[in-house]
Design brief:
This protein is mostly helical. The chain is 76% helix and 0% strand. Helix 2 (47-63) runs antiparallel to helix 3 (71-93), helix 2 (47-63) runs antiparallel to helix 6 (129-152) and helix 4 (97-119) packs antiparallel against helix 6. It starts with a helix and ends with a helix.
Length: 153
């Protein structure tokens, strides 16, 4: 009976000490960098960067042969994203920040739809894992920068 009472305490003590040791060795560093992507586009929160990266995404989708039947839908959504970004840039150049913000919000919704299509059951079955992971990374970075750009308007 005594062994049963002592064992959980010993196991819990060992786990807690291991976690404490792991927490003390963790260090964090934060750096901000602007990188140039393979398509020659800068990774920053600007209309030109987002448009360039969207065109690179369209080229990537066009060249991919392992997208299955989702390729057409992804291409249509990317074209819509590009139109919204170009329209938002034109609205901003015309001095209408509110319409530009609206276009960016719609573009964000399109990015969410693309991300959902990549994560869906059909996407997981149709698209090769490596291609899907690469596309998800690209879409996630676009979404982050789009939100940052919209916050500046």
């Amino acid at each position: 009976m005594r062994v049963r009472r002592i064992m959980p305490g010993l196991v819990l003590g060992a786990v807690v000490s291991t976690l404490a040791a792991a927490q003390t060795t963790t260090t964090t560093t934060t750096t901000t960098t602007t990188t140039t992507l393979p398509g020659g586009c800068l990774a920053e929160a600007s209309f030109t960067s987002l448009t360039c990266r969207t065109e690179a995404l369209a080229t990537q989708l066009q060249g991919a042969s392992d997208l299955g039947r989702t390729k057409d839908t992804l291409m249509q959504q990317t074209a819509k994203l590009d139109r919204l970004l170009l329209d938002g840039e034109a609205q901003m150049a015309a001095g209408n920040a509110r319409k530009a913000s609206t276009r960016l919000k719609k573009a964000g919704r399109v990015l969410i739809a693309i991300g959902f299509r990549l994560r869906s059951l059909t996407g997981r079955k149709q698209i090769a894992a490596a291609t899907r992971a690469e596309l998800q990374t690209t879409v996630g970075a676009l979404n982050t920068d789009l939100k940052a750009l919209r916050a500046t308007l």
